[in-house]
Amino acid sequence: MDFVIPISLILASSLAILVMAWRKFPQLRRLTLENSNSGFWGNFFPEINGFLKKISLGRFKGKFFGEVEKGLRFVRVASLKVDRATNEMIHKVKKNGSNEKEEVEGILEIQRDFKGEEDKLITAISEEPQNTVLYKKLGDLYVEMGNIEDAVEAFKVAAELNPEDREARKKLSESEATLAQR
Predict the structure, then answer these.
(1) pLDDT tens column, 52-73
(2) CA distance linking residue 50 with residue 38, whole number of Å
(3) Model-level pTM?
């Protein structure tokens, strides 16, 4: 019985919409197709459409996508940092069987030691995303930190950027082997 009122409101609203649309059909038939070439949004917002057509977006395209790429790389690295920090905390808790405050502070202390160098490398990578040396240095830093998952990611990117780089491939295979042993 509770559903009768909502259903009746829905039906009445639908009927009202159909009546309004039916009354507008003669006016729609009289419209010409001369303005239909400006697209869906152009018909609704002709002033904005005209303004956007005057702007030459082609010359800004490369810069825009470059900035978007930098932003996406920054988000990726930030998510890797968060993932690494949570993995370290989980590993410490599982290893020692408790989650005492001292253990968490110890993990944070370790992260503070490497944070400055890691930030510098990440900034350098965002400025030179094709530089394999920077990715290898970041991977080495992650290995020193004990963060093998991120090290594998960094070495993988270095190996993808320069497939002939034997050092990057060797470090990648060593890191993957270490990760497999865990």
Answers:
(1) 777 776 777 788 888 888 889 8
(2) 9
(3) 0.42
37: which DSSP letter? G
73, containing H or E segment: helix 61-96
**Cα separation, 121 vs 141, whole angstroms:** 9
Range 32-51 average pLDDT: 67
> Using the 8-state DSSP alphabet, how is residue 129 labeled?
T
Q: 158-174: per-residue pLDDT in tens? A: 999 888 889 989 999 99
Handedness of CA 114, 115, 119, 125 (dihedral sign): positive
Average pLDDT, the chain: 81
Domains of the chain listed by start with CATH number:
62-181 (1.25.40.10)
Write the single-letter amino acid at 57.
Answer: L
Cα–Cα separations (whole angstroms), residue 41 to 44, 45, 46, 52, 99: 5, 6, 8, 12, 56
